[in-house]
Design goal:
Chains A, B: It catalyses: (R)-malate + A = oxaloacetate + AH2. Chains A, B: It is found in: Mitochondrion. Chains A, B: This is D-2-hydroxyglutarate dehydrogenase, mitochondrial. The structure is a homodimer. By secondary structure, chain A is an alpha+beta fold. In chain A, 37% of the residues lie in helices and 18% in strands. Chain A is built from 19 helices and 16 strands. Residues 1-55 of chain A have low confidence and may be disordered.
């Protein structure tokens, strides 16, 4: 059952009123639901300096799914209109189990035409829709907040074309990233992006959230590698921008609107993407550094000496290593160090790459920038080293309640934030850890506590956002804003820009049915 | 004096009426102006299958610059409000001398604040504005069509910041590309783009037109390398998206709207751009092939063997070589061949790069894919080889009247278009030549005739666009649409997409003052 709060003017009184509503909802609907609801209340009401302060998410006056609506969907998608609460369970809750909606309908279209018919109908009926890919997002963007209809791309999983000359892949939005990677690998190509969630995430979701990941340093962002896309607009109109050309300057590049808009402007149904050749040689080095300054110097040296073959420069701190050892029983492959670096090279000539890597390692070991290290060239060992970086997120989930931040900063400042946060929180936190993509200036700051702790959250936010804004950083490097971060947008974007985003939303989705409560701050409504 | 035609409903009668207006203008304003005017009439009225057929550019009902307006501008920009017709001459006509406006005011702001004040004033007064960078565009996008005020970025030429750790350059929009290249070279970095027009073009114009150029194959498009920009909107509002972060997923990526919108949505005043390290080693090979099929096979082989160090794969045909020899007295550095390839490598290790290049050349010579070739490693010789590719445009201007097409196609089809066009035109054309960026699937098709020839144009268009559309190509790969190609947009974009572009234009520039008559087709008005 959904919490339905009629559209009210918001103010302090209203906020208090809504809080008591949530509390009474607790009694009616059981403990778990209310707990999720409270997280949301806390999240948006927390930050005093936020222009959106005082607004809490309330259910907007969308229609409620009726029996007649269900009849329509069942006729359109026989056997693919899911209403069984047990089957809906996993689609209503996010991967972190931090946000839970109460949708009663999950639709599983197979074609663009079906998506178009669904949206046309929902727009006319003013039914809210939550587009959902692999549901691996970390900011509550991929699940319903109230009773939005879940529109899953899971059955839109066909590769439509692959051109082995140009390396351009065209596929439906619901293809799982890892399946696409395997498909391409057999054809001697790779996907230009790779993420820890590759086994579940959908390419449509990757594009809709402008996912970054582990190969951005080398192959650039999806804004460059996505050559075309097809999206269905809120009114059901199909926008075919599914070009397969590297260059196309005929008018405004509309596809960019949908990349990174988190399903709020349209539902991506297909994409075409430029895929690099599979490298002939891959090497991974796992190194230890005694300070972050030495890590930075190693990065500078690495860019010069590995140049065009450098494909990843990742880091984790000793606290992350501790969690990997403790919770996942992974063994540290080198001696204990304050910082660890994972470097990957990918190139066309194994001998050249090995020589470059050897020269680089010799230089950084001789100059004591790096204190210990190991190198892998065979696939299983490469995977084992990558696990040290990729499984940090998983290790964290075993460490208690997680407060996750995904920050872009000038690269020389990324660890200062972790140090400052540790000092700032003192013994309020269980662990404060930092890892991420040094090559992209992207820090994943994670804070754990035994259980959810409002006092800890109050110490973290808005401190973390103020710190970021003071360095002209971004409060969301690659995770997006979703439900959890949308009201903090003003820490990274000026009001004129946010207002323009609101105008774009109104233009493309005048009834606001697409992924409501996400990405844009509440004060725009 | 400007041609002023009041806003009229368009139809066949109107078209005829406008044509006779243009003819009478001829008598008043002299031969040259009328000739330019006629080109415009022909260009837009030509294509029978174009949905915008029947519309011709007419002066929209903007205000006319009054003495009071001039007084305002002179007070705002003392000594930088140009009204002397001799000084305005070069800003009124494009580089190809194919489009000429009749603007009577050229404004040269130095700061974003001045641009903001100009636009706020023009928007209130409903005065049309033509933003102008280096005026090197090839589609008539950079000059006024009627009496639009020319807003030049020439004095906005300051580097604002350069971060030598990240390689991120922030500068005003009017910086000349070559000056930026020189600035960076001294700091061991390079610009991620390079064009033949680098000595004149402005970075703001490059970004506004999403310029492609010679390094796109390696460093990707400006959609990936431009990290931030500042733009002034039609109403004078300053939109500060001048981020210097590699990753930033906080809301919609507004800067993408301005990249490639040809000054129709806002005036770009500053950009930040990610610059690659200067390569340690550069090599250029100039090769001959006996067929285009062999050229394609050489390309495939090259991508495999040169991999990550390949930075350009360009081609020209023997007709281009003939023009270079005849008009510019450049000597062919190798034996005559039907096709010529220019390959550039850029890498971090000279010995490795030379070995890769040597292995590749041995393979393609042994297998007879390539019939002759020469390699340059020193800078002067590299420049001489690049001149064979870069100066084709210049050679063409000496060959008569030029009909220029800039087409994206699946790479295997790019030369078929030249062959088909030659057959199609027979002896109607003087020369039909093809050159361009094989690595990007981008053909520059050029057709020359002794003088302007309406019958020849009628034979070329819409044939060239229909041919492109049949291959799902783009009728403008990197040049943009400007004035000349805007009505052909439907050959590459579906009507829903074009309509959405119109909505975006209306949202950002409701009075339509920014670069009117450009990019969007006439039928959207």
């Amino acid at each position: 059952m959904a919490v339905i709060i009629p559209g009210l003017r918001l103010g302090l009184t209203t906020v208090r009123w809504l809080k008591s509503q949530a509390a009474s909802t607790l009694a009616v609907n059981g403990r778990r639901f209310a707990a999720y609801e409270q997280i949301r209340l806390i999240h948006v009401a927390r930050d005093k300096s936020n222009p959106a302060n005082g607004t809490v998410p309330r259910r907007l006056p969308f229609s409620i799914v009726s029996q007649q609506d269900l009849d329509f969907f069942k006729q359109l998608l026989p056997g693919r209109t899911i209403t069984d609460p047990d089957l809906l369970e996993s689609s209503n809750v996010d991967w972190l189990k931090s946000v839970k909606g109460s949708s009663e309908v999950l639709l599983r279209p197979k074609s663009t035409e079906e998506v178009s018919q669904i949206l046309r109908y929902c727009n006319e009926r003013r039914l809210a829709v939550n587009p959902q890919g692999g549901n691996t997002g970390l900011v509550g963007g991929s699940v319903p907040v109230f009773d939005e209809i879940i529109l899953s791309t899971a059955l839109m999983n066909q590769v439509l074309a692959f051109d082995h000359v140009s390396g351009i892949l065209t596929c439906q939005a619901g293809c799982v990233l890892e399946n696409l990677s395997n498909y391409l690998e057999e054809r001697d190509f790779i996907m230009p992006l790779d993420l820890g969630a590759k086994g579940s995430c959908h390419i449509g979701g990757n594009v809709a959230t402008n996912a970054g990941g582990l190969r951005l340093l080398r192959y650039g962002s999806l804004r460059g590698t996505v050559l075309g896309l097809e999206a269905v607009l809120a009114d059901g109109k199909v926008l075919n921008c599914l070009s397969t050309l590297r260059k196309d300057n005929t008018g405004y590049d509309l596809k960019q609107l949908f990349i990174g808009s988190e399903g709020t402007l349209g539902v991506i149904t297909a994409v075409s993407i430029l895929c690099p050749r599979k490298p002939q040689a891959v090497n991974v080095a796992f190194l230890g550094c005694s300070s972050f300054q030495q890590l930075l110097e190693t990065f500078q040296c690495c860019r010069g000496m590995l140049g065009e073959i450098l494909s990843a420069f990742e880091f984790l701190d000793s606290a992350c290593m501790g969690l990997l050892e403790k919770h996942l029983k992974l063994a540290n492959p080198i001696t204990d160090s304050p910082f660890y670096i994972l470097i990957e090279t990918a190139g066309s000539n194994a001998a050249h790459d090995e020589e470059k890597l050897h020269n680089f390692l010799e230089t950084v070991m001789m100059s004591s920038l790096v204190t210990d290290g190991t190198v892998a060239t065979e696939e299983s060992k490469i995977k084992a080293l990558w696990a040290m970086r990729e499984r940090v997120t998983e290790a964290l989930t075993h460490d208690g309640y997680n407060y996750k931040y995904d920050i872009s900063l000038p690269v020389e400042k990324i660890y200062q934030m972790v140090t400052d946060m540790r000092k700032h929180l003192g013994d309020k936190a269980k662990n404060v850890v930092g890892y991420g993509h040094v090559g992209d200036g992207n820090l994943h700051l994670n804070i754990t506590s035994p259980t959810k702790d409002p006092a800890l959250l109050a110490a973290i936010e808005p401190y973390v956002y103020e710190w970021t804004a003071a360095c002209r950083g971004s409060i969301s490097a690659e995770h997006g804003l979703g439900l959890k971060k949308k009201n903090y947008i003003y820490f990274s974007k000026p009001p004129e820009a946010v207002a323009l985003m609101g105008n774009i939303k109104s233009m493309l989705d005048p009834r606001g049915i697409l992924n409501p409560y996400k990405t844009l701050p509440d004060n725009l409504r």
